[in-house]
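Course assignment 3, question 2. Fill in each field.
Student: A.L.
Task: Predict the tertiary structure for the chain below.
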Amino acid sequence: MHSIREGHRTASGAANCPACRGRLSYRSYYSSPTYYAPPSPTRSRGGSSNGGGGRSTRPRWSSASSPVTYTADEVTALDRYRTKVEAVGPRAESYDLFLCHAWDDRRETATELHGLLESEDVSVWFSEKDIILGQPFMREIDKGLAKTRIGLVLITPAFLQRIESGGVSEKELSELLSRDLLIPVAHGVTYDEIRSVSPLLGSRNGLSTEEDSMADIAKKVAELVAL
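Answer field:
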């Protein structure tokens, strides 16, 4: 009998060999290119590149008819916020969301996101419309925080610059972070860049316009806060 190490000159020879027949099926199962392809690393959003970017996962709060799809990483990141939303529940005279943003983004990116959220029936506290000229700014922010169930922070290059220069009011950030009620949305920045400026803020995984359009992000946030 031949040695197993010598192998066979043809596939039929291996198939007819009683010593190798079982091994052949095992090897072909794992070597077939149609069975397995190594996952491509996803872009680093929460410090992970474990191939969790496949869009086949549906979170428990999203209906089967939802037009948006989620990665496993997104579901894991958003589940903690959904739990908070469910714990707070609906409140009278309240907003679904407090939108935190950089002053520089107020008339473009933040306004765009605000409009998309409202088009999805999300009630948003937004300083551009909810603080009337002449009203005490910090007092109105206090009122807004008291009336909202969860916060969303739009993190842009301008936002990170403001943090570094001390130009962003930290009141709403610290309040929402302390209660774990702040959903990050990265726009034009990576989560690695966020962590390099604010490790605390960057430790909260969330959504990113590298992965989704702003319109799809608004849809996902709408599903997240709906009760």
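Instructor remarks: The longest strand covers residues 148-155. The chain is about 45% helix and 10% strand.
Grade: pending
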